[in-house]
Please model this.
Amino acid sequence: MSKNKATNKGGDLLKELNKLSAATRSTLALLLAKPEELTAIVSERTEQAIQLTTLDTVVDTMQEDIETLKVTVSELKENVGDLTNRIEVLEEKVLLADEKYESQKEELKEELSLVHERLTELEAATVDTGKKSTRGMKRSRLLGDAGAAEQDTHAMAAAIQAPVTKKPKYMLTEEEAHVRESIQDSGDSDGVGKMPGKGVWEPEAPSAAPAYLIPDWNLESNKGINAQIIQRAIDNVRSMHKVCQHSIYKQHDGNSLTEQPDANEPLVPSGSEIWLTPKALKSLAVQRWATMKATFKRQHNEDLMRRREMEKLENRIGERQKTARKWLSIGAKIVAANKGYDDELQLQLCLDLVHAEFAGEERSCDEDGTKNNRWWKDICSTGRLGAAQKKDRNSAWERKRPIWMSVPVYQTFLYHKEQFDLTQPKQRVTNSTVRVDLKRTSNLTPREKPWDFMVDPVWKATQMNDHHNFPGIKEGRPPWMTAEVESELRKVDGDWVHAMFWLERTRERAGSTDADEDEEMD
Model:
């Protein structure tokens, strides 16, 4: 019996050998005749297999390193965004500092000029007094250092004789201090209308009226046309004061005043005429000039300001997308772990399905940039906010689905992560801002191509061709994904969608059914 089996096996082997080509049989015969060569070939193939296994390990290690690098690059980008925001804040502070410096420089020039004039006058008076009497010398000896005493005297005299706008605060009367504060407060306001400027905006005067004096903001306040404007303003103020006090005076013949003065009410109270001296008015004008210049720069750099606001908005959206991407990754791993995927498949799922641009958009306000009543009412009506949160319009953001993304894919990973946080007490404080979906979509276009099953089929058929910046679609599915998983991800009630949406849709269906029954009863 065993002999027959051996014979049969031998016959089968001969049949298989006959199927081989002549060259193959010849090679096989040579190898069987030389077993040492066959052993060498087997050893060589074994070494190659070991090398391939080692290479696979190296590739796996490199993939892990690449993922680590991606995380590092993402963190670096976040740091760059933070630095960009800080640079913008510093630029604004530098601009304000420059404006303040220009104002202080003008004031210092005026103050130095006044001090120089008073020093010259006092030096002449001191010399003249020394010639007439020896009392000054005796007094200097009693005081000690005559030079220091003279300098103190000069400084005090200069402060006393300086315009009231330049006096030290301790030398002002209570009324003068109040007036100065009022003037400074008015100088900080921007209620001056649109500010003209040479070569930028030069409004024309009405017919038969004197031409307007247009300031040149590239010059200092005491140069060229700017000095004429300040002098004209000083003359107008002094002229108005005279008209208020005495009817025999007429208004200045410059640009007509907007209001006729009341002869019964002087421009300043009696006894406060010191505020209307040319030096005092010029000092006030120089202070106000710096504020007007800053207003001009701000008003006529609208494009720059608009670009800055847009950059800030894009940075905010980008940072929120990065945060949402982290949430998506966590949610994707949670879902994959629940499905029984190992660590390698979880990582691959995140790489293929999770990108910052797939996270949609989160807004802390409505489309008009405000937290208006209608928008906040919609937020509160979702049932996601508690009583205390409804009173605080900073307690919730609106989350928008990317217009191109299918609903089931959008309702998968992000919400699994949120549910995970609710079951982890340590996580509740870190994500205190509630995200609310008002069923509105975001038009932000991704740069990464999404897979076909991730795209809303209705949008794909009706709107995709109108979005010229859309990068296109990856056909098929990732290599690791089965047809069953792809099918599940296309279903709004699929196993991947978060359970809260099943209940929500059930309630919606129940509500629509009740409404239909009410109509039939009517």
Q: What stands out?
A: The first strand starts at residue 361 and ends at 363. The chain has a mean pLDDT of 71. The first helix runs from residue 2 to 19.
